[in-house]
Design goal:
Shape of chain A: globular
Largest sheet of chain A: 10 strands, mixed
Structural class of chain A: alpha/beta
CATH class of the domain at 5-97 and 167-253 in chain A: Alpha Beta
Oligomer: heterodimer
Number of helices of chain B: 12
Order of helices and strands of chain B: HHHHHHHHHHHH
Largest interface: A-B, 30 and 25 residues
Shape of chain B: globular
Number of domains of chain B: 2
Number of strands of chain A: 10
Radius of gyration of chain A: 18 Å
CATH superfamily of the domain at 5-97 and 167-253 in chain A: P-loop containing nucleotide triphosphate hydrolases
Helix content of chain B: over 70%
Distance between the termini of chain A: 37 Å
CATH architecture of the domain at 5-97 and 167-253 in chain A: 3-Layer(aba) Sandwich
Helix content of chain A: 25-40%
Strand content of chain A: 25-35%
CATH topology of the domain at 5-97 and 167-253 in chain A: Rossmann fold
Chain lengths: 258, 305
């Protein structure tokens, strides 16, 4: 079920402003790909184009191609809502729905898309919470509000919610930046397990995290304020962190800037 | 910038920190505390006074069960007895008819402004119009509906016409409150829903509005409480009657403000008592709506624990 992503000649705009320029990359199925780079380099923007969340912002648009297996996500007949059912997303700050219980949060994607069968929902909730390593902690309080959990648990709840709809790709936008080190470790372990089923793309500011969890790493950079971000280099994580081919990458990962 | 001046050793920051606060500052503090408390007390005086006056003169009639069950039919200003049932029912029917029209328009208008219009030209125009509507005096709204309902269409003066003029007052109130609470719903929740492949309309219906629900209900209740006491539309469009009428589309219908107005100029004791009792009934009705609004807000509010 995991799919491969091919991006070719992608330019991303907010209105007249070009935020990201000329990206070409391939994301392998059943692997973890990390996007790293300094703030404002467009890595989050790039991530959001992969499930068309980018265009939720008024005036945002892209030029170029994003292929999911062989289908162009930006083709004329493609419905962005359908794209997001296939490409799920986890956000920087945990955002469980405050009006819903833990159970309803996990089931929300299915329920809101018309699934009514109780047995199907029960099974999906249990499977997703187990998949997010949260089942043991919440199985006896599924009717409590999602907001009653700790920050790390809430983020795993959001991951459970995202995988409940069985996406083929999972995008994670700095999923640990609001969490403490122990919760971060739990999420990282989870990412390592999830990659057996899903294609994962993760944006992170934490280079150790990129080195720990990812198979491939893409380094983004921008030439200066107001200039578009660019993909500088993409390679296996091991190579990026030991022997990158670009000077800028080496400078960034060794902490000489950014 | 100023960092260096703050951190320079041996300058003003070596000052004695143990000395007590100066007398002048202590006196100012006491003065300010007294002033603020006095203002609060003064603001409360008229409220307490009104409540006391109305309750002391009208409460004894409210304690009679007939007050809540009978109309004023066949009762003159010389005779005791009768009740405010006709006016209470009339006020509630008029307000409910008004709410049935205002709430959908107000809530959907706010959804348009927050979720769809954003900063577009139409949204700004609507927002501007709502600002103007908020300031329309109730008598102007009533005259407008009179011109439309009676002069142009040639209909009778009925309770529904009163409701229509109240709609002009309630829509901006509901719309503004709903707009504010919808803006308070974090964008992250909308994005979380979109990212699950939920379409926009469903996101608004199932995520955004439920999250803002308690705020919307509070706004509606407070809007209702406000229009319940409006009198000008009743004087112009809703003639008083002493009888019970459940039909807002035909015949005269009483309301609490017009019941108060009815006996206002009488000097005979039974009529005077009824005036105060009707006033107290109106105050209690508005109070009840406020309490219900707060209760709903508390019990439907988003809970963390």
């Amino acid at each position: 079920m995991a799919k491969r992503i091919d991006v070719s000649d992608l330019d991303i705009y907010y209105g007249a402003f070009k935020a990201v320029e000329g990206v070409n990359m391939t994301v392998e199925p059943r692997s973890v790909t990390a996007f790293i780079g300094p703030s404002g380099c467009g890595k989050s923007t790039m991530l959001r184009t992969l499930n068309r969340m980018h265009e939720v912002v008024p005036g945002a648009r892209v030029e170029g191609k994003v292929l999911l297996d062989d289908q162009d996500l930006y083709g004329p007949d493609v419905d962005p809502v359908a794209v997001r059912r296939v490409v799920g997303m986890v956000f920087q700050r945990p955002n469980p729905f405050p009006t819903m219980s833990i159970y309803d949060n996990v089931a929300s994607g299915l329920k809101l898309n018309g699934v009514r069968n109780k047995a199907t929902l029960d099974a999906a909730v249990e499977r997703s919470l187990k998949g997010a390593n949260l089942w043991k902690e919440v199985q006896d309080r599924l009717n409590r509000p999602g907001g009653s959990l700790s920050g790390g648990q809430q983020q795993r709840l959001c991951i459970a919610r995202a995988i409940a709809v069985e996406p083929q790709v999972l995008l994670m936008d700095e999923p640990c930046s609001a969490l403490d080190p122990i919760s971060t470790l739990a999420i990282e372990d989870l990412v390592a397990q999830l990659k057996e089923k899903y294609t994962i793309v993760i944006v992170t500011h934490n280079m150790q995290q990129a080195a720990r969890v990812s198979d491939n790493t893409a380094f983004f950079n921008l030439a200066g304020q107001g200039k578009p971000g660019k993909l500088i280099e993409m390679d296996s994580t091991q190579r990026i962190f030991s022997n990158p081919s670009e000077k800028a990458t080496e400078a960034y990962i060794t902490g000489r800037f950014g | 910038m100023s960092e260096s001046s703050l951190a320079t050793p041996g300058t003003s920051f070596d000052a004695d920190l143990t000395g007590g606060r100066s007398k002048a500052r202590g006196a100012k503090n006491i003065l300010a505390a007294v002033l603020v408390s006095a203002c609060f007390a003064i603001a409360l005086i008229p409220l307490a006074w009104i409540l006391w006056t109305v309750a002391s003169k009208g409460l004894h009639l409210l304690l009679d069960i007939n007050w809540w069950q009978q109309s004023q039919r066949g009762i003159t200003s010389r005779t005791d007895g009768g009740g405010a049932y006709h006016a209470l029912v009339g006020s509630l029917i008029t307000a409910l008819a008004c709410a049935a029209i205002s709430v959908p328009i107000g809530v959907l208008g706010a959804v348009y402004l927050v979720e769809y219009g954003r900063k577009g030209r139409l949204a700004r125009a609507v927002s501007f119009m709502v600002d103007i509507m908020t300031g329309i005096p109730s008598i102007v709204a009533a005259l407008f509906v009179y011109a439309l309902w009676v002069t142009i269409f040639g209909f009778e003066r009925v309770a529904f016409a009163v409701s229509l003029s109240l709609v002009l007052l309630m829509v901006p109130a509901v719309l503004r409150v709903t707009e504010e609470v919808l803006r308070l719903v974090p964008n992250e929740l909308r994005e979380a829903s979109y990212a699950l492949g939920v379409p926009r309309w469903k996101t608004i219906l199932k995520i955004v509005i439920p999250t803002a629900f308690s705020g919307i209900v509070t706004g509606v209740m407070l809007g209702l409480a406000r229009i319940m006491g409006e009198t000008a539309p009743l004087l112009i469009l809703g003639p008083y009657t002493k009888s019970i009428n459940f039909n807002p589309f035909s015949g005269n219908m009483a309301a609490l403000p017009t019941m108060i107005n009815q006996d206002r100029t009488e000097s005979l004791q039974p009529a005077v008592d009824r005036t105060w009792a009707a006033a107290l009934t109106l105050v209690l009705l508005v109070l009840l709506l406020n309490i219900v609004a707060r209760a709903i807000a508390r019990f439907s509010a988003v809970r963390d624990r």
